[in-house]
Amino acid sequence: HPDFKSFIGLYPIPYVHGMTAGELAWLFNREFGIGVNLRAVPMEGWRRDMTFKDTGLEWIPTSPHIPNAETAAYYATTGSIGELGTISIGVGYTMPFHIVGAPWIDANELAAELNSRNLPGVTFRPMYWKQFYGIYEDQSIGGVELYINDLSVYRPFATGIHILEAIRTLYPDREIFPDNRASNFKFATGTDTILTRLKAGVPADVIIKSYQDDLEAFKILRQEYLLY
């Protein structure tokens, strides 16, 4: 949404868009009026169904907390959750973006709730850990470890919405959406709609369904710019 445009989200595209940098450049240049003389150099030997591991290339960390390609997929689920400042996402422990939790969460209870939802491509393991730094430093935290077991069907952003809804449902007396951090989450997701609906207790599936028309429209739009 234009009200939440920032350096981390300049244009109205999905959180997980499935495009290469070159393809995005073409789309941005034409659809958003940049208008430069652009050339994108196609890659050799790459297919859209490849994971980064399939390429055999060396991963260059995009962040100190994203040391490998596997973590990038987890970041797409938990990164925005961390902006709330109430849920640990493993930054400050040895598993950044792979785990979510808080001192007041029962690990087994949260894992059971999330696994009961049968979310595609992922399972949840109960876990306790102690933060070395950052949010809840030196405190024991209960939560879950995410296991992405099938990246081809995994829905990173939708999974994050389910995680937040599950925590809100299990712990209704906890303030997990504080007003002083609300803008961080809104800018990370590019909208205020998701936060507003989560706070109101709208089910995750309803929230996810609400943006499907926009998602399908983008899939049609991007077809013109796919190079592979």
UniProtKB/TrEMBL annotation:
<feature type="domain" description="Peptidoglycan beta-N-acetylmuramidase NamZ N-terminal">
    <location>
        <begin position="2"/>
        <end position="69"/>
    </location>
</feature>
<protein>
    <recommendedName>
        <fullName>DUF1343 domain-containing protein</fullName>
    </recommendedName>
</protein>
<dbReference type="InterPro" id="IPR048503">
    <property type="entry name" value="NamZ_C"/>
</dbReference>
<dbReference type="GO" id="GO:0033922">
    <property type="term" value="F:peptidoglycan beta-N-acetylmuramidase activity"/>
</dbReference>
<dbReference type="InterPro" id="IPR008302">
    <property type="entry name" value="NamZ"/>
</dbReference>
<feature type="domain" description="Peptidoglycan beta-N-acetylmuramidase NamZ C-terminal">
    <location>
        <begin position="74"/>
        <end position="228"/>
    </location>
</feature>
<dbReference type="Pfam" id="PF07075">
    <property type="entry name" value="NamZ_N"/>
</dbReference>
<dbReference type="InterPro" id="IPR048502">
    <property type="entry name" value="NamZ_N"/>
</dbReference>
<dbReference type="Pfam" id="PF20732">
    <property type="entry name" value="NamZ_C"/>
</dbReference>
